From TrEMBL:
Name of the protein in its database record: ERIP6 protein
Superkingdom as given in the UniProt entry: Eukaryota
InterPro entries named among the record's database cross-references: FAM194_C
Gene name in the database record: Erich6
Occurrences of domain FAM194 C-terminal (ranges): 1-174
Pfam families, per database record: FAM194
Record organism: Pycnonotus jocosus
């Protein structure tokens, strides 16, 4: 930092490396973020509470009260429907920012005195067919609804393309959605059956994906 305090530490051992962001304080070693090459990363608020937590499966964003604001899963590791990631940018302090665009595009930027250093701590974790990931956490009500509406929107877009390609109304009723949308709809219904949600919400989600 311009103050002379250590801002970023990079450590490495064999094919593993880590990046640690420290707060701009003289007599403390308060950690503001830790990024690891195995896909695990955590960012902290100034008071030490967890802000962003990421793993090889996905991540979550928490507010300062500890409530989950956002949750996502990396699309390349799971064939199941997933909540997509919207780009995230946070400022750990006036000099260090974190931008999360994708699993392999997680940038830590340091800016001071007109000069910038940028580190890409993203990674594409390869999971072998013999290894098993820990079971994913159950999706909440909002996330299940988001997945259902996403599939429904994709169904409508596919329907619109079909109408443009085949203007005859007789052919519209014969068109079937692509197999990947059918598979995603089935997966969402399976997730609803396993989730702790009301029967009314379960029925609503079923109606959305089967409309």
């Amino acid at each position: 930092y311009p103050s002379g305090n250590l801002a970023i530490i990079i450590t490495g051992e064999r094919d593993q490396h880590s990046l640690i962001v420290q707060e701009d304080e003289l007599r403390t070693t308060k950690i503001r973020a830790l990024f690891q090459s195995d896909g695990r990363s955590t960012c902290y608020y100034r008071n030490g509470d967890e802000w962003i937590n990421m793993s090889i499966q996905g991540g979550q964003y928490l507010d300062q009260a500890g409530n989950r604001v956002r949750r996502w899963m990396w699309p390349n590791l799971s064939p199941e429907p997933h909540v997509p990631l919207s780009p995230i940018f946070i400022s750990l302090n006036r000099h260090v920012g974190v931008r999360i665009l994708a699993q392999d595009k997680i940038f830590v930027s340091f800016l001071a005195m007109g000069r910038q250093a940028k580190f890409n701590m993203g990674t594409k974790v390869q999971v072998s067919t013999t290894s098993q990931l820990p079971p994913p956490a159950q999706l909440g009500e909002d996330e299940l609804l988001l997945l259902a509406f996403r599939v429904r929107i994709l169904q409508l877009f596919d329907r619109m393309r079909g109408c443009l390609n085949f203007p005859s109304t007789e052919q519209w009723n014969k068109m079937q959605p692509p197999m990947y949308l059918i598979t995603q709809a089935v997966k969402i219904l399976e997730l609803c059956m396993a989730a702790d949600i009301s029967d009314e919400l379960r029925s609503s989600i079923k109606a959305i994906v089967n409309a």
